[in-house]
Amino acid sequence: MKKLIIINGPNLNLLGKREPNIYGSLTFTEFMDEVKRKYPEVNLEYYQSNIEGELIDKLHDVGFNYDGIVLNAAAYTHTSVGLGDAIKAIETPVVEVHISNTFGREEFRHQSYISPNAKGVILGFGLQSYELAIQSFL
Ligand code: DQA
């Protein structure tokens, strides 16, 4: 059984409530229930934190014994050298995802410290971005 984890960064705990015109109105819990039902063959975990260092700690924890990491580092994508370095330091491949098409938004969202070290990047497909990332590991 493949062991995968979705890691979400800051403000993504507010999915469903936060700017629904950009991020949709489904909560992440509702989405996770749906995905778990759809992919019973995957051991799928979920972790969210608003704290940069906690996200780095989690990457260290899972980065040597999981088959894949689906990472939406949210705003830290555009600022965090530390998260970029953590991805370089671990062995488990990371697929970077974004709900919105960050290239169609403000210029500061065009920069990513995650992309250079990610296996691939999926963005702009709403919550389906996560599902496509999961499929890439199967
Ligand atoms: C996001 C895009 C980021 O620019 C933003 O800071 C987020 C969410 C997305 O999933 O579209 O919080 O990562």
Q: Can you tell me the CATH architecture?
A: 3-Layer(aba) Sandwich
The H-level CATH homologous superfamily, spelled out, is: Dehydroquinase, class II
CATH class assignment: Alpha Beta
* Percentage of residues assigned to helices: 25-40%
Beta percentage is 15-25%
Shape, please? Answer: globular
Q: How widely separated are the two ends?
A: 10 Å
- Please describe the biggest sheet, giving its number of strands, its sense, and whether it closes into a barrel: 5 strands, parallel
What spatial order of strands do you see in the largest sheet?
Answer: 2-1-3-4-5
Hetero ligands: 1,3,4-trihydroxy-5-OXO-cyclohexanecarboxylic acid
Count of individual beta strands? 5
Note the total helix count.
5
Number of domains: 1
Query: What integer value in Å does the Rg equal?
Result: 14 Å
Class based on secondary structure composition and strand pairing: alpha/beta
Following the backbone from N to C, one meets helices and strands in this order, namely: EHHEHEHEEH
Characteristic terms for this protein:
Rossmann fold, five-stranded parallel beta sheet, 138 residues, globular, 32% helix, 20% strand, binds 1,3,4-trihydroxy-5-OXO-cyclohexanecarboxylic acid, alpha/beta
